[in-house]
Specification:
22 strands, alpha+beta, about 25% helix, Cholesterol Oxidase, domain 2, seven-stranded mixed beta sheet, FAD/NAD(P)-binding domain
Length: about 500
Amino acid sequence: MGAPDYDLIVIGSGFGGAVCALRSAQAGMRVVVLERGRRMTPEVYEDIAAGQAPLFHGERGPGPLELLRLRGLLALTASAVGGGSNIYTAVTIRAPHEIFDDHWPSGWSHERLAPYYDRVEAMIAPTQIPLGLSRTRALEAIGRRIGTEVTRLPLSMDWPTDAGALDERPITDGVYREAATWLRGGRASRKRTLAQTYLPAAESCGAVIRPLHEVLAIAPRDDGYRVDFRQLQDGEWCDGSLSARRVIVAAGALNTPRLLLRCRDLLGTLPRLSQALGQRFFTNGDFGGLLIGPEIDLAPDAGPPVTAWMDLWRRDRLYLMETGLVPFDIGSFTGLLNPARWFGGMRLGPAKRCTWSFGTMGYRDNPGRLVLGRRGAMAHRHDPGRDAAFHARTIALLRELGAAAGGKLILPPAAVFKRWPITVHPLGGAVMAESPEAGVADPCGEVFGYPGLYIADGSMVPTPTGVPPSMTIAALTERIIEHLIERC
């Protein structure tokens, strides 16, 4: 058996993997990042906008979005260099202090994370939108009507030199171009993904990033671990493997548990993994709705997907985020997104051709469980009855919004969201804990029973964060990689 190929293999390049890549490379380690998705360049975005490159990731080709349809769960995740930063709304915010009160290992608290939050903030540099758009001002007006605080959110964005460009009326040009524009951060603003922050800094320090490498298995060897993968070359998948003294699994809150379950239950390469693997999985309270024809001044703009939210944390452990105006007359899809086409009796005149989308999230503490079937398909098991109170608060909030705005509120059918919870912020499934009976990894992220194998992504988070989790994942990882480097 030859010497390991690297000191460290990082699986995934999202908010955990990117941090690990930079800090380990700065420490002089030989590190390689294996990422199943592609690099997102301006040319790739243009190809997506023109319908010449896939929007969704699949066997036919790599795309930045991945829609995971599990039994008992629908999840929208990312697959690209930079992970979830390619599809998130750029909201970069610290978790509320209270989330650390229960289920977290001793030593973890908001105060303990503060210096690591500071590091992340220094790298990502979020700022508020420099100009209040009509939807921003409208949400603030609605907040005043119902006595709720509205906050303009810190966003990891590059703003135009002329802030007025954010308020220019856009021209819609097809559903794919709209999707590509949304992913990039808007027409006049540009989202700073991890491919503009942590990852190029890591490469400048010697880290190697290998896109289109999908990891299939992890197996111990005498001096570390072997990682088996398949890589896409010239349109064909071919197998390969690399070895390292240490491995960090940062494939995301769904792909990390799936990979580890596969290694434990199907391949038998990591048989000592905790029986807690797959448990304490959360959707972070994700929900949403559409507000049709509100009686409030709104105009399409060239700004970012998100500008502000209603802060209902103290009252209901909830946040309500505006996620932009939905164009429903776009290109060859004319009328397809027009709600009047799908809901009888609704008529939208020229003055009310407006659909405003909203997302909610919060502290939905009803953990589900991820399990692997005999054929390797993952499923999500949960008790929808325990969600009744949380969903009631969420729906009441959305209805309060609709009434204050004078619009028609459209919500997902109850039969759908109870049977298939929907999440864009999956968390847990391979959580940190004090013991292998309670979790998969110790408080420093090292997997119980497998020295040198670490977890550093949303799957390690033992509770909902209540807010977009990217900053918390990155801050946790800053501490985990610091500990790993100290032990080297």
